[in-house]
Task: inverse folding
């Protein structure tokens, strides 16, 4: 099973970004979203180091609530 992780953009440098989720920071490639207008504090879905979709803050929150429920059930 593959999961895309919602992360918030904290810094942008060309097609690279520093993103954060739940206190964890990762360097992420924005190359696949080069036609999308992305800004600091936007949320993106990250899969294997690439941002693959821009999402709303509400969508990010909903995803994290579901992930937290799955972890709690384990």
Result:
């Amino acid at each position: 099973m593959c999961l895309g992780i919602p992360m918030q953009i904290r810094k942008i440098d060309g097609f690279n970004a520093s993103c954060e989720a739940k206190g964890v920071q990762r360097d992420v490639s924005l190359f696949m979203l080069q036609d999308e207008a992305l800004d600091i504090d936007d949320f993106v879905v990250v899969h294997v180091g690439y941002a693959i979709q821009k999402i709303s803050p509400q969508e990010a929150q909903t995803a994290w609530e579901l992930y937290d429920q799955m972890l709690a059930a384990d």
